[in-house]
Amino acid sequence: MSDTTTPPGPAQSDLAGLEGILADKESVRVLRYPHETEADEEGNTTEWHCDIVIVDDVPAAGFSTYATVGARGLPTNVTTPEGRQIRSEFVIVGRTGHRAMADVLDACALAVATGSIHVAPGAVIPNAVGLVDSGRTCEHLVLTPPFLWPDLEVVDESGGEDGTGPLLTRLQAVPITTAEMSFLVREGPDALFEKLDSADADVTNPDRPSVV
User: Fold this and answer.
1) What DSSP assignment string belongs to 65-105?
2) Which of 36, 37, 38, 182 has a Cα-to-Cα distance from 114 of 20 to 30 A?
């Protein structure tokens, strides 16, 4: 992951599907994270980037939404029962001013690019928070269908401009503790989210106490 980001500007990023969280927003920031693939057998590498859209005061005042743009270009090796490819973009919420959440979301794209996760609800990205924002109580991420943005487009079945492209989903990344990650492995993601809900856990706070 790069230590620096470049602001490409919203006009240079495809914001399709994010209209529901961009409505009435006078300014939208985009950070570009440059990356390079590992060298192949011939020593060749490929440059690629992940754009992170930052929208303040969404889903509420004092909070910011971070959303990937372009992660859909990364193969997930996940398909529908009919064999259609499924690609994913990611969203996360944080307190306004906690810009490390942009780095955390870029870690989601990196995990997809390296093939280290099965991109689906309930998938865990170990140490995605800890590696880029050390010292937080919640060091890991779990993916789930988005639940904080009622107007966010979650599934796009259009297949792009020509109608032949992959089905697109959006997944929310939720920071979790090591104890919660272990509980999820034992009991499953539904059991963990029931505990988070019962405890009224603040999933926007990466320093919240563990619910298990």
Assistant:
1) EEEEESGGGS---EE-TTS-EEEEEEEEEEETT-THHHHHH
2) 182
Is the peptide bond preceding residue 59 cis, with omega within 30 degrees of 0?
yes
Domain holding 16, by residue range, is 10-198
Does residue 28 lie within any of the structural domains? yes
pLDDT in tens, the chain (212 residues): 333 444 554 456 678 889 988 887 877 899 999 988 777 788 888 888 899 999 999 999 999 999 999 898 888 889 999 889 999 999 999 998 888 999 999 999 999 988 888 899 999 999 999 999 999 999 999 999 999 999 999 999 988 777 778 999 999 999 999 999 999 999 999 999 999 999 999 999 999 999 99
Query: Is 106 in contact with 35 (CB distance < 8 Å)?
Result: no
pTM given for the model: 0.88
Total count of domains within the chain: 1
Q: Which residue do the tokens 């490819």 mark?
A: 85
87 found inside a domain: yes
Assigned domain for 210 exists: no
* Interatomic CA distance for residues 95 and 73, integer angstroms: 28
Nearest to 138 by CA among 203, 67, 195, 54: 203
105 within some domain:
yes
**By C-alpha distance, which of 22, 46, 9, 5 is closest to 152?**
22
